[in-house]
Write a structure and sequence with these properties.
Layout (H helix, E strand, L loop, with lengths): L9 H13 L5 H7 L3 H11 L2 H13 L13
Helix pairs in contact: 1-3
């Protein structure tokens, strides 16, 4: 079961949504800047966006390449 979205002010919601739209993949920057997990972000986006906008955002997230880990010696 997905987590409930956090209670945010309207200004915070706008910032989170703007960050999620511009981030590729959409979860990394939101997690770092706003401390919102991917499950919470999905619930928030589903609640705040129109169904077609949510589907477009979710499709972009699925098609984005995941962040790659650096290999040794630079990534250790």
């Amino acid at each position: 079961m997905a987590k409930l979205p956090p209670r945010l002010s309207p200004e915070d919601k706008k910032r989170v949504i703007a960050t999620a739209w511009t981030d590729q993949p959409p979860y990394l920057q939101v997690q770092n800047d706003h401390a919102i997990s991917p499950a919470e972000l999905n619930a928030l986006m589903k609640r705040e966006l129109t169904p077609s906008a949510y589907k477009e955002w979710a499709a972009r997230g699925k098609s984005a390449k995941p962040a790659t880990k650096s290999t040794w010696p630079h990534g250790r």
